[in-house]
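Class prep. Protein, please:
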Amino acid sequence: MKVQQVSEEMGVQYVMEGSVQWSGDRVRITVQLIDALKGHHLFSERYDRELKDIFALQDEITRKALMAMRVALRGEDARASEKAKGTKNLDAYLKLLQAWDHMNVMNKDRMALARPLVEESLALDPGNALAYASLAHVTVLEVYVGASKSPRESLDRAEELAKKALALDDSNFYPYVVLSLTYRFKKQFDKAIPPAEKAVALSPNSALACFMLGAALLSSERFEEAIPHFNKSLRLSPIPIGQSLINLAGAYRALGRYDEAIATYKKLLQREPEYLPAHVSLAGTYVLAGRQEEARAEAAEVMRIDPQFSLERYAKTLPLRQALVDQAVENLRKAGLK
């Protein structure tokens, strides 16, 4: 029996072709996943199993086909997560994939969707290092978007979770990325660089690892050194990581390259129009560039997206040294934010 299905997943149109043959108590299945637009084979495999294994085989094929599409979109980051220990529970893994997509968009609503998915994944697969790292990650991001009631407690908890993930699997780059991120938000900038370097050493073609090393250098005010890592991150990822763009723009701004910073913020907002931190940063950059009218327009966008926005709360979330935080807040006041 031969089957063909044309569908779309995560923005990729694909053709799934397969054939099934039965022989006694065994089943032989051939599966191909093809990019419908480019004609590239994303996934091709043959299976010869006993009929009693058919349901487990169905899960395996689903997981591998989905992973092939993630790799096509996300490159080395997806491949590295597939290699991680403790990811054999399909339902748990699918919940992490959904959570990661929410976590790529920096606002409270998406964090509120991401957290329960990560918690459900961890409940389904308690020994999964990726789930612990993801829970640490979403905990830090809640601090960033102002969704944490106690940022200090949240960051302490995130550090514990990241270290738990490393205790379960220290061969994967992702827990090191999250640990570096946590140290940045705790303003322990010197401690943020070594785990980011370790992440890059483990996965040099990971867009996320390269971004985090750039971010750690940025927080330590090593702006020129940070830029190549952000650019490499963007080259490696078919879908630009929002945080790479916003931090690249921040490096340009710190170096007085305001036109490049503004263009980079706008590139990010074309992809994610509701990305609140980009609107905030763009408002401050317009002030520095002497474009006051545009600064006030961006400030209005900030208040539209988050009517509860406050400079006091925002200042506490910036993983930067205090002098840079004070300067950023003053620029935002000039843009009309309070």
Notes: Strands lie at 2-9, 12-23, 26-35, 41-50. The two ends are 66 Å apart (CA to CA). The mean pLDDT is 82. Residues 273 and 285 are 17 Å apart (CA to CA).
